[in-house]
Structures are given as C-alpha cells and as structure tokens.
Design a protein that fits this description.
It is a single chain. With 236 residues, the protein is α/β, with parallel strands linked by helices. The chain has a single domain, classed as Spore Coat Polysaccharide Biosynthesis Protein SpsA, Chain A (Alpha-Beta Complex). 36% of the residues lie in helices and 22% in strands. Helix 1 runs parallel beside helix 2. The longest helix is centred in the first third of the chain and has 14 residues. The N and C termini lie far apart (47 Å).
Length: 236
C-alpha cells in the first residue's frame, strides 16, 4: 500500500484539486494522510466535504490537526501515522496524473535496488524535465523534489531542524546510507500556479529563476546543507 502524506497550511483553495486527482488514480491500493499544520483558513470545511467523497470511494484516510510546527514536522507526523509500504509526500497544490501512482510503484517493483522513484513535473504550463539519478550531480545540486515514491523501509525521516532545502537534505542523507533513486522519465504531476509557487518550488529551480526574492535566503540555506553533509562550499 502507498501512504500519500499531505502536509497543508492555509491552502484550502488548493487541496481540493489535489484530492480530486488522487480520487481519480488508476492504482487504488493507497491511503491518504492529511496533516493540517495549524491552518487558520477554512481548510476544515473543505476537508469535511471531502471526507464523504473518500468514504464513498473506500479510500482509507486520516485527518490530523496539530499546532503549526513547519513542513518537515508535519511530514514526519504523517509518516508516523501511516501504514503503507511506500510513502509519497504531496503538497496540497500538486495535482497528479491519473496513472502517477501506478507508474511510480511499478517502477520500484521492477527495480528493487532503488529506494525511491521520482519524475519530471509541470509548474503551471511550464515543464521541468529532470535528470536521471546521479550521485555526483546530487552532491553538487539539489535537483530532486520531495514528491518521490519512497520505500518505507529505507526512509530515514525528515530533519525537523532543516527549514529550507528539505528535499536535498533528505536525498543526501539517504545517499550517505547507500540508498539511491530511480528516475521515471515523464511528467507525472503539476504544481498549481499562484502566489505560493516560490514557497513550493524544488530547490534546484532557484538556479533557474534567479529573479525570485527568496533566492538569497536559499543560497544561504544551501550552505547549511553543505556543511551538514560535508560538501564543498564557498564560505564567502
């Protein structure tokens, strides 16, 4: 079974499309774990409406409400509450292609040496085509997003102390443990457009979009990751 874990904070306007895309999946052996990380919008009302849809579709689910503790803490809470052999962390503003879960799980089943499987994605209408798994590239740059399908037995958990580059930190930690990834060469999900885009974007895109005001903060945060994982960095 796949556990789809959705940490969400004040995205009542986005999560419906995410849940609709999961309800439409061709692969049906999954559960949904939603972690409301202290939202102050009308998320509870939206989720109440979707509970009926999930029950009708016979999809197991949990809705967990906690005080705001940040994305990594919410992801870890979802992981601890989940039951699946595979984990998929999906932000609320992602919607999935109908065969996404099927493609990802089949890829891992055919490649037992891989600990996780990731794909390319769209940001609105723009395509972000990623690269095959390469340990050396991964050490140089954060090009793999958080929304990969991960074998539960290989997942070390997120570091709650890391506030940015959570994706890079996770994959580097797994790499240090001898666990690698697998690239599925297709666009399996789309990130919705809107004001929160820059908060979602996978870390590597900040090299491609230097005009974003958060770039400097992310560059500073990258140094934290490099020091933690003993990677070369420029101290200037």
């Amino acid at each position: 079974m796949i556990s789809v874990i959705i940490p969400v904070y004040n995205q009542a306007d986005k999560i419906g499309r995410c849940l609709d895309s999961l309800l439409a999946q061709t692969y049906r052996d999954f559960e949904i774990i939603i972690v409301d990380d202290g939202s102050t919008d009308h998320l509870d009302e939206v989720l109440l409406a979707y509970e009926l849809k999930l029950q009708k579709a016979k999809i197991p689910y949990k809705i967990i409400v906690q005080e705001n503790r940040g994305a990594n803490a919410a992801r870890n809470r979802g992981w601890n509450e989940s039951q699946g052999d595979f984990l998929l962390f999906s932000d609320a503003d992602i919607f999935w292609r109908a065969d996404a879960l099927e493609k990802l799980v089949n890829s891992l089943m055919r490649n037992p040496q891989a600990s996780y499987c990731y794909s390319s994605f769209r940001l609105g209408r723009k395509k972000f085509h990623l690269w095959p798994f390469d340990p050396e590239r991964l050490r140089r740059e954060p090009y793999i997003h958080t929304s990969a399908l991960i074998r539960r037995q290989d997942f070390p958990g997120f570091d709650n102390a890391i506030k940015r580059f959570q994706d890079w930190d996770l994959w580097l930690t797994m790499l240090e443990q001898g666990k690698g990834g697998l690239f599925y060469d297709d666009f399996l999900f789309t990130v919705a457009g809107g004001g929160r885009i820059s908060k979602w974007l996978p870390s590597f895109t900040y090299k491609l979009l230097p005009f974003l005001p958060q770039v400097k903060k992310y560059q500073e945060a990258a140094t934290v990751i490099k020091v933690k994982h003993r990677l070369p960095y420029d101290p200037k």
